[in-house]
Each structure stands twice: as structure tokens, then as C-alpha cells.
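Workshop exercise sheet. Pairs work together: one partner reads the sequence aloud, the other fills in the structure field after running the prediction. Swap roles for the next sheet.
Pair: D.N. / O.F.
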Amino acid sequence: MGFKGWLVALSMQKPKQVFLAIFALVVFAGLQIPSIKVDTDPENMLPHDQVDRVFHDEVKKRFSLHDMIVVGVVNTEHEQGVYNPQTLQDLNKLSLAVQTMDGVIRQDLMALNTVDNISQSTDQPGTIRFEWMMKSAPKTQAEADQIKASVENLPLLKNTLVSGDGKAAGVYIPIENKSESYRLSKEIQLVIDELNAASPTSGNSFHMAGLPVAEDTFGVEMFIQMAISAPLAGLMIFVLMWVFFRSMLLITAPMLVAMAAVIITMGLLIGQGYTVHIMSSMIPIFLMPIAVVDSVHILSEFSDRYKPGDKPQSALRSVVGHLFTPMLYTSITSAVGFASLALTPIPPVQIFGLHVAFGILLAFALTVTLVPAYIVSLSPKRLAALKDHSLTDKSEEQSKLGRFLSLAGRFSIAKSKGIILLFVAVGTVSIYGLTTIQINDNPVRWFKEDHRLRIADKVMNSHFSGTYDAFLVLERTGLATQKTEFLGQLESLAIDQPIAEKLKSILIEYRESSNKSWLEKLAFDLDDLAYEDAANESLWLELLSVVEKAQSQSKFFLSPDALNYLEGLQTHLNSSELVGKSNSLVTLLKTVYRELQGGDSSQYLLPKNSAAAAQTILSFQSSHRPDDLWHMVTPDYNATVLWLQLKSGDNQKMSRVIELVDDYVELHPLPINVEMNWAGLTYINVVWQEQMVSGMLNSLTSAFFMVLVMMLLLFRSVKIGLLAMLPLTVTILFIYAVIGFVGKDYDMPIAVLSALTLGLSVDFAIHFLERCRAIYRETGDWPATVDEVYKGPARAISRNAVVIAVGFTPLLFAPLVPYITVGFFLAVIMAVSAVVTVVLLPAVIHQIKDKDRLFSVSGPEPALELELDPEQNQEKENA
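Structure field:
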């Protein structure tokens, strides 16, 4: 007895031990689930050491940039918009309340009451004055009008803190950790509710936006959806199987298989310490229908073969005997489809693919052990209650499904040429449809259009310059080389001088130092030496003069050339409809310099030289928020960042902004020794999606050829192996063509569907072709084979397609768009796969002349049969 026969025999002989072993596994895995951790951070779509992610994290640290929640108040009822006492009072209260919340970086919060108004001093011409923009909330309209005039005079604030139309004002709330954004949004909402209750006639409407709050909110709602959809899918499958088999006790077995597979797989994932991402949250939904597929095949044939009064073991041996290897191969091919996702460079997708693959193989193992053990445990009375128990039952033949399948079979044969031409045409059109696919994603669009976050996103981006951030970093390179060259030049100036040896020993320390402020420290040291070594004071002071000059020149982004380049780039960006607004060191310098020159708009210019720029910076350092400077430039002035506000978080829009900058740089090359890079969540989303697309293509291609090889090994026939790939190929082409034609964005859930298509489409083909070959060998007649196939295997395939498709229907009612997308397209995949299998395959086979050769009638028997145990061999001999 081989392993297969031993395994099935063990399940039928010792069902209680099988139940206990599986129950123990389920309990152990279930104990891991309470430690679940949800993760919707798009940064984690990239490995921690991925170069763009590393740079993004470095930029946030160097420029003290933080993820932000943006709260906006909109007033379209008051004639002055938000510039009225009541709205500004509410905004002031909101800002003060938010500053007391844990997790908020208070000193960097931006609101009208926390920023400076920059104006020329009336007491001392040529100097500027920094006053709080809204030190206290205005009580009169005149005071509100004064705030309006001040805001509109400051380019840094206009269209950022207050919209250009004056109808909306914002509070930019930097947070310590993105994972706190949902909690903070709830606390902020409580404050907003209190403000609305206190002034119901104010005309104010509050909204919250920003990627952090969208992502964290999605995580919470995803967790809730996961707890709802999986049980609903199980309930739908249970009801459908009852409709098919009319025996609650019998269909309990596949439901137990599905639940055990889901619990053990999720327990394994969580127990290993992996977080549950958007894709891994769908593992229960994917596994639930897939796990019952093999059970449906076994139950369908068992109910056909079993006769009341007979021992179930005999029917089970026969059924599992010829289904074991096809089920094994279909499980392996499905697992290969999902495991191929491990070839993508996206960690959450890798984890999802590998665990679904494990779950599918686990479901197969549970099917061939738990289902037989369960069936033999039923009493004869329970087994006799089966209503659908005969393959030749007249009622089944006369059923709607039976009649439809018989018609489909006859139609497929009668119109085989037309069907083939139709599918060729569909395939040709589908290839064109693939070229129309749009690769795009946006976390905010994971919610339905009537969701509060989608509404907030639409409203706020219609008023403000944009709630999506991108950061363009320009940095001077080659500083280490320049440092080495300068120290060498400095040392050469002291050759043959009495200070040469002393200077040489000092410079050794600086050559090895990584301190970015080394020039400043060197200047202090030389100044001290000039005081201590009076005999050589003039020599030390001469060197000090050289260092001070180099120190001034080292502040690259205060030089006119660098600032003029930044200004040109920023002007180019602001002139594009893709960018709502950009702020940079240039904006700050021009604003402060204007006030230093008298405050007239004609003076809104860059300082004329580095010294004037440095003086302008020094003036700004007297403000209430001097550290805001370091959000724009590093202390050594060798790196600067442009803050871009975008009205859309779509990856396509961000990609076009990148192209916009690249085009400018091509026409206006960067200054010598300056490099440019991107950072920000909107950019990171583009990076991981590009990697996902290329990774998915590689994984799909690899898996396709792996499945093809498996088909050739399974059927030991090139022709049948290629036929088995036909439903898979047609389904993938058709589904993705539909996605292209309807304009559905190609995002992560859509990309992952290819793995499911790969497994399930070939699953149907394996069962159909294997039964066709077996029946043809018995009958030797193709029409008789078709008639028989459409009574049995085609019926099981149809049942499977319906069970899986309906099993995913609860996703259609989810509040989250990715779940709806997966539910809809999976139902379509099942329908197309089943139709191609039961309509196109017979038509193609019908056109093959030598069917004896196709089905290897005279050749060796493939090892598709399960080895029988001695008892069954005896039964076969007696027969």
C-alpha cells in the first residue's frame, strides 16, 4: 500500500484520532490570533533597506519632517468666508485643544495662532517685526479683516494655511507616529463636535485629511471587515452546499476543512510575528472558498456513487482513488500561483502569497483526511438521507443545471469552429485591452466615495493647494573630496613656516573627523592659536582668514547661483496645474528680504549676494519659530528641500510631477556637484507600485511556465498539457482586458488576482481533461464521452464555480473598495474560467482528429489512480 492509500485508509479506520489531531492544531493556532497586529503603512510595502525608503527616512530625520493630519474648516455661508470672528474663534480653540493631545508635535503645529506675521518695523526702518498672526481670537470683524490682510501678504501661508478664496482655513498637525493618527483623529473629532454643538449656526464645516489618517483608519476598518466578511463567506458557502447536497451533516465536513485551514493559516502568520496588511487581511476570504473546492469534488462524486445500505468506505475508496492525484496537482498549481508572489519585491505581498499557498496545501491535506473520516463516522441512517446519490438520477438529469450543461455540451460540439473563432477574436481584442490598463493607486481611494475621508479629501483639495506632500531634495555632493583638497591647500600655505608642524598635527584630527561643522570648529581653533602663539599670530590669522572665506563659500544654498536655480525650478513647478503650491528656502528669503527692503511687493526678490542672504536668515532667526528654517535647509546649507503640495495622491499624478521636474533639469542642468532625489509618502507610493508591477509580471511569467511543466508531467502529453493551459490563458487575458477597457486602475488587489486565476482556472481544466481521458478510454467514443462528462465532472466544475463566486459576494457589500474589487473580479474569474473550460475545451478537442492518440488509448496508463488497499483489490477481483 502506497502513502496515498495508507493516508486515506488511516482516515477511514481511525477517524477519532484524525479529529483530535486536527482539533489540537486548530486550538494551538487559534491561541495566536489574539496577538494580531494590523499594518497599513505604505512604507512597509518596501523592504526596510530599499534605497528610496532609506533616503525617505533620512530626509525626514535631517529636515525634522513629520507625517501630518490636516484639519480644515470651511465656511461658504459667511460673506467673508473663514475671516469672521466666530470661525476664527473656533479655529483658535481647535488649535489649542490639539496642542494638548499626546502624540502631537506641538512646536511644529501650523495654524493661524501659531505662526508669525512678518512685517516691517514702524519704529526702526530697515528692520522687521515678528508678531503672532493671531495672538488671540478676534472679537470684531475689523480684527478678522486685519488677519486676512496679513495672511494674504505672506506667500508662505497663502493657500497653505488659508485658501486663496478665503473660504477655508487649515490646521497642520505633525504627529510623532503614524500609528497614532486614528486615535488622534477620534480625539480631534470630539473637539469638533463640541465646537459644532456650541455654535450650530456658524456655517462652519470641519474636515480631516492626510495620508496618515487615511491609512490608519483603513487599518481599523479593515480589521472590522475581516471579522465580518470571512464568516459571511462561510455562511454563503454553507447555504450553497446545502442547496447542492441537501444534507447538513454531509456538508459540515468541507466547512470544517475551510475553517480549520483559515484558523491554522492565520495562526501561523500571526504566530510568526507578521503584521496583517491589506492583502493578508484577505487570506480568510481567499482560503474559505478555495478550501472547499476539493471537498465539493469528493462530495459530488461520493453522493453520485453511494447507495443507501452500502458501506461508505467502498464508495470513498473509489472516489478518492481517481481524484487524489488530480486534486493534488490542482492544489499544487494553485499553491504555485500564490507562492509565485514571493518573487515580487513587496514584503506584504510575499507574505500573503506564501501563506495562501500554505493554506491551499493544508486544505488539500485536511480534505483527504478529515472528509473521509467525517463521512465514515456518519450513521447509516444519516448516509441514507442523502437525496442526491446517483450519477444517473433522473431528477438530476432533468434539473435546470443538468439540462443546461447537456445543452452546453451539445452546442460546444455542434458549433466548435465558431466557438474557437469567437474565442480567438476575444483573445485578440483582449491583447489590445491589456495595453489600455492604467497603473495607479491612492490610499484615500480605498474608501467609498461617500466615506467621510473621501469627502474631506475632495472638499479640502478643492480649496487648498493640496493635502498630499512630496519633497524634492537638492544636495551638494563631493564634500569629502572638497574637504580633503581644502585641508591640503591650507597645509601647503604653511610650508617652510614655523607653524607647519603644529598645523599638520591639528589637521590630522580634521581629516578623520565626520563633523559637518568642521570649518566652524577649525576657525575657533585657529583663533585660539593666534591668541596663544603671539610670535606667529599673523600667520595663524592669515590661515583663519582663508578658513572664514571657505566657511562663507561652503554655504552653497545661500549662494546666488544656487538660489536662482531653486527659484527657477520652483517657478516652473508652480506654473503647472499638477502642483498646487511649493514652498522652499527661496520663499522664506524673498518674504523676509521684502520686509527688510521696505515691504513693497516690488521688493519680493532674492538677496543679491551670499552675505545679504545670510543677513536675511539672521533676521528670521528672531522670529517665534526660528527652527522652521531647518525644515527647508540643513545647518551647513549644503542640502535643501522643496515642499510640494499636491491636490491628488494618485500615483499617476505624482509620476507626472517627477517627469515635469526631469524635463526641467534636462533643459536646465543641475549646478555642478549637486544631485536631486525625491522623498515623501506620495513618492514612496509610486516606488512600491512600480516595483509591484514589474515583480508581478515576473512572478506571473515564472508561475505560468511552472504550471505548464506540471501539466506536462501530470498528463504525460504535450497536447493535453497545452490544452490545460487554455482556460488559464484566456481568463487572464479577458479579465485584465476588461480592467483596461472599463478604466479600473491596476492596483495591488488587481495585481494579486492573477495568482488566483492561475490556480483556479487550471484546477477546472485538470479535472475536466482527466475525466475526459478516463471516460474516453472506457467508451472509445467522443460523443459518448462528452455526454458522460457533462453529467459528472462538468457538474462538479459548475458547482465549484458557483460556490467560489458566491463565497466572495459578501465582499461586494464591504465599505472598503479593495474588498469590493476583489469580490467582483473573483466572481468574474470563476464565471469565465468555468465557461472556457466547459465550452472552449470540448470545442478544441472536437477539432483534433486523432483522439485515440490524444488520449493515449494505446499508450501506458498515467499514474492517476490511487493505490487500492487489499480489501478494495479483493472487491475488484470479485467484480
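Discussion prompt: Residues 387-398, 859-879 have pLDDT under 50 and may be disordered. What would you look at next?
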